[in-house]
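hey so i finally got around to running the thing on that chain from the lab meeting. sorry it took forever, my laptop kept dying and i had to restart like 3 times. anyway pasting the input first so we r on the same page abt which one it is
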Amino acid sequence: MTLLTIFCVQTFGQTISDLTANAKEGTAELKAIYDLDVFSYFNLNDYDTELKQAVFKKTEDFQSKLTELKSIKTEMLKTTYYAKISEAFNRQNYDLKRKGFEIELGMNWGMGTMSARTPKSIYLDNGGYILLKALPSKQNAAPIMGQGVYTENLFFVMSEEAGLEVENDKENIDVYFFFTPN
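ok and heres what got predicted. didnt touch it at all, straight out
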């Protein structure tokens, strides 16, 4: 996925609403569209076993829905989406040595747990997540929480002047991730 991160209220003379006007908010259904998952996208809950799904896949109704979903996917692959993280800077102060802010994207309690999360993933406000493989984040061990637990952090380099603006208005700073699925 192509990535652009914007972290301030105004960027290059444009407001966030100017930028989001040309994008759609990412939703949990993006994964179902990308995977051509007819059952999830169309909420076909009656087909709850492999056998029921296999039989339904042989019907004209399934083929019709699959064709429709392929068309939706074609449009999705041409569309820019965004995901937003609110209040990411609330607990962070400017790091004078590194010249920026490090925000936490999430914690990974390890595979096999309910709190496992894929590295370089961003949770969407409306459910689901997106994987941004080009995201320059780093996983750091959180030994105080136990072995195998990691936090994922993203560092924003900025001048001291810009950092002061962020520190003085932390509660109003959101992080936007703009991406085009691929």
